[in-house]
Amino acid sequence: MRQKIVAGNWKMNKTLEEGLTLTSELTNMAGDEVRSGVQVVLCTPFIHLAAVGKLIKSYSHFALGAQNCHQQVSGAYTGEISAPMLQSIGVNYVILGHSERRQYFNEGNDLLRQKVDQVLAHGMRPIFCCGETLEQREQGIHLDFVTNQLSESLFHLDNEAIGRVVIAYEPIWAIGTGKTASTAQAQEMHALLRKHLAGKYGQVANSISILYGGSVNAGNAKELFACPDVDGGLVGGASLKSREFTDIIKSI
Ligand code: PGA
């Protein structure tokens, strides 16, 4: 069975104190009741990671996630954070290729391939984001565009390495807009991505978790998560509210 994952992407939100309050509320509300097998990942700003990590340490279904990392191991890259640094404070997952990073920080498929390698080389799991713009969808090129994102950044990996990658399909037009993909749109893309992975990796594709992201909330999570190829969610805005994020976790 594929691992079910609900990841919260805090983006650039929450002071340290607010982040710790949110974390405590989440472990209180979702600490014991979460069905076993569901992994909850808190992707916090870099400077909160160590402290949030301490709070979730005794909750085995909670894991720690970063939102980015640099493609080099170390060196003169002022202001950057490397994969070994993240590994050293107990980070389990790293979001890579979020559309905001692609758009505002010019991250392309080649750079992301290097970042994927760094994260895997340091024992962590990438949450690799892909997704199309509204314009691309309207032009009918969205399926090719998204499968190409996977091919260019992931298809150099071997079977063992790809098995450690989590994929998040996030249509850009659905991120932070309140517009969610329909279950049919989500299932169509997820099934296609799995088929694309199977074309290269065979049976391994069936073990890869593919998350949906883009305006997931407590009202729509259940039906999205019920799609056969949707293995959980990457949640932005709704992950900042403990009650709502708990409801989303519980709807899987
Ligand atoms: P959203 O963000 O849930 O606020 O749409 C999702 C994401 O960007 O990961």
What's this model, at a glance?
The chain is α/β, with parallel strands linked by helices. Helices cover about 40% and strands about 15% of the residues. It has a single domain (about 5-250), classed as TIM Barrel (Alpha-Beta Barrel), CATH 3.20.20.70.
Descriptive notes:
With 252 residues, the chain is an alpha/beta fold. It has a single domain (4-250), classed as Aldolase class I (TIM Barrel, Alpha-Beta Barrel). The chain contains 11 helices and 8 strands. The chain has helices at 16-30, 49-56, 83-88, 99-104, 109-121, 134-139, 142-154, 159-162, 183-201, 221-225, 242-250; strands at 4-9, 38-43, 62-66, 93-96, 125-130, 166-169, 210-213, 232-235. The mean pLDDT is 96.
